[in-house]
LacI family transcriptional regulator (Planosporangium thailandense), 674 residues
Amino acid sequence: MAASIKDVAARAGVSVKTVSNVVNGYQFVAAGTREKVQRALDELGYRPNLSARRLRGGRTGLIALAVPEIRVPYFAELAAQFVQLAKEYGWTVLIDETQGALDNEREVVEGIKSHLIDGLIVSPLALTAKHIEARRDRTPLVLLGERLTHAPVDHVSIDNVAGAQAAVAHLADLGRTRIAAIGSQPHISGGTAALRLKGYRQALRRARLAYDPALVMPVTRFHRADGARAMQALLDLEQPPDAVFCFNDLMALGAIRTLLARGCRVPQDVAVIGFDDIEEGQFSTPTLSTVAPDKEQIARLALRLVHQRIGARDDAQPQEETADFRLVVRESTAPAG
Amino acid sequence: MAASIKDVAARAGVSVKTVSNVVNGYQFVAAGTREKVQRALDELGYRPNLSARRLRGGRTGLIALAVPEIRVPYFAELAAQFVQLAKEYGWTVLIDETQGALDNEREVVEGIKSHLIDGLIVSPLALTAKHIEARRDRTPLVLLGERLTHAPVDHVSIDNVAGAQAAVAHLADLGRTRIAAIGSQPHISGGTAALRLKGYRQALRRARLAYDPALVMPVTRFHRADGARAMQALLDLEQPPDAVFCFNDLMALGAIRTLLARGCRVPQDVAVIGFDDIEEGQFSTPTLSTVAPDKEQIARLALRLVHQRIGARDDAQPQEETADFRLVVRESTAPAG
DNA sequence: AACGTTGTGTACATCGTTGTAAAGACATCC
DNA sequence: GGATGTCTTTACAACGATGTACACAACGTT
C-alpha cells in the first residue's frame, strides 16, 4: 500500500506535521530530525497525495491542455511545446481531447477536472462566450485560437487574417492568377475559417485579382481527406486553378496527393500553400510551403498567462496576446525554373 | 466561487448527506426532498470535487495514458483510440507525455499522479522490470509495447517479430534481393527495434537471401529525419538496396523523401515498407505500404485489463494480451508494371 | 401493547495534507 | 530570577465527500 505521511511519521517517531515540514522544506527543522525523517521517507517511498494536497487548498503542479483532436499534428505539436515549456514552471501537463464536442468542452471549463489541476488551457471549437461567462469554477483559464475572442478570459491567438493574406500574396507574387481556397466553413461564423477566408479575399483584392466563388471550397473538417476531396472538385472545374491556398497543412497535403495522383505537377502546374507548419510538410514531396505560427511562442504566452492568473488575487483584466507567424517557402510554391 | 455540497445543503435546507445521497442516486430519498435538492444543485451549478471524492476512497472516472511523444503520429492515433473507447466505461482519458525519459516514466508509475486517477496505461521506453517491481502504488497499471514483457503487470503488445517478418517477406516476394533495414538500435536490447530486426533476419533466411550488415541502419530515434538520414547513407553505398524495410512509418516517409529528392523512383527503383499504419501514409506520394497493428484492439484490450484490475480484489495473475496486425500493401511496394 | 419492518433523514468520523497557534527547550540579557 | 527571544516540535482544525451508525416516523403484525 502507498505510504502516507502518517506512516512516515510513525516510522521516524515524529509528528505528521514535522514530516510535512521536511517534505516542504521548512527551515526550522533540526538536522538530526530532518535526517531521520528523510530516511523514513526514502524507505517507505513516500509520495504526497495530490488529492489531499489539493483539497487542503494547495497546488498539484498539474495543468490541463484541452484540444479538439490530438491526432491532428498541429495540436500534437502544440501540446508537445506545452509539455516542454511547462517544465520551466515545474508543471506537468495533462492533455485532454474534447473531440470538439460541446459537452466535453463545457465539462472541461466548468471544472469537473479542475478540482484536480492548477490551471487550464483550452482550444475551443464549440464553446460560446455564454458558456465562459456562466462558468462558476475559478480555476485559471486561458483560451487558444480564434473562436471566442470576446469572452472575458485570457486569450492567445495569432493574426489569421494577416497570415492568410501573406500566403495568398505569395502565390500572387509567383504570377498565379486563378488562386483557389480550400477550407471555408460557411456555416460557422467567427472561426478560423472565416478569418482565413477574409485574408484570402483581402490578398486577392490587393493583387487586383478577381474573386471567383467557384474557387472557394467548403469543408466540414480540416483533415487530409477533406483537402483531397476538395482538390478533386477543383480539378473538375472548367477552368481549374493554378494555385491553392489551403487553410491548413493537413488539407494541403491531401490536395497535393490528389494533384500528383491526377498527373498534375506541383508547383509547376498548381502551386500549393498551407497553414500551421506541421513537421510532415518538411518531409513530403514536394515539401510544403506554409504559414508558420510560432507554436513555441503560443505555448509560452499561454503558460505565462496561466501563471499570472494563478498568482493574481482576484479578477484582473482579461489579457489578449498575439503570437507571431512567418511565411515559409518550400518546394510546393517554388518559382518555376 | 465553485459551490460545495455544503452550499447546496444550506440552500435546500437539508443535511449534506442528503445532498450526497441525491447526487449518488441513493434510492431512499423522498420525491419532494429530491426535487428540492435537485433545484439547489442546478441553481448553484454544483460539480463534485473529485479530489475530495478520491481522497475519501472513491473513483474519479479518470484514467491516464502515458506515451513517450505525443507528436509521433502512432501515439497520437493510439491515444485517440483510447479516448474514444474509454467512453464505453464512462472514463475520461488524460494523456501524459513522458518524452521517454526515465524520471518521467518512473514518476508516472510510482503514483505521483495516480492519487488522482483510477487507472494507468503506460507505453514505456526507459523503464525496467525493476522499477515495476519496486512500485508501491496500487493504482491499476497496464503496460503497452515490447519493452518489459516480463514485468509482473498486465501487458498488451503485438507480435513484432511476425509483423517484421511479414513485411520483409512481402518485399522478397516482389523479387527484391538487396533488402535494407532502417531502425536498428544496437545498444538497446529487448525493445521494439530488436524484435523487428529479428523478424527481418528471419524473413531473409526463409527467402534464402544473404544477410548483409551494411544494409542494416542504426538510428537513435524513430523520426522522419532519422529515416531520411539513414536512406542517404544507404544510397551512398557501392551497392544500394532495391528495397527498404523501415521499423516505422515515420522513418519510411523520411526515407521516401530522400529517395525522391535524389531521383530514385519508388517503388520501381527502391520499394519501401513501414510499420504502424499512420494516416499520413495513406496520403503520401507514393502511398505507403505498412504493417498495421490493430490500434483499436490494442486500446480495447488495455482498457479491458485496467477495468478488470480495478474490479479485482487483490493481485490476480498478471495478464498478457496480443493484438493482431495485418499487412497493408499500397503504392510504395506496388509490383513493377 | 409490544414488536418488527420499511422508509427517510441526520451526526459523526474519516481520507491525507498543511496553516495556525501554541507549547516546550534553550540561550541571552538585564 | 525573570523577561525576552530564537529554534523546534506538536495538536488541532479544516478542505469536500461519503460510509457507518443511528434516530425517528409510519406502517404493519402478533
Residues 4-6, 16-17, 20-21, 23-24, 48-49, 51-58 of chain A lie near DNA strand C (CB under 10 Å from a C1').
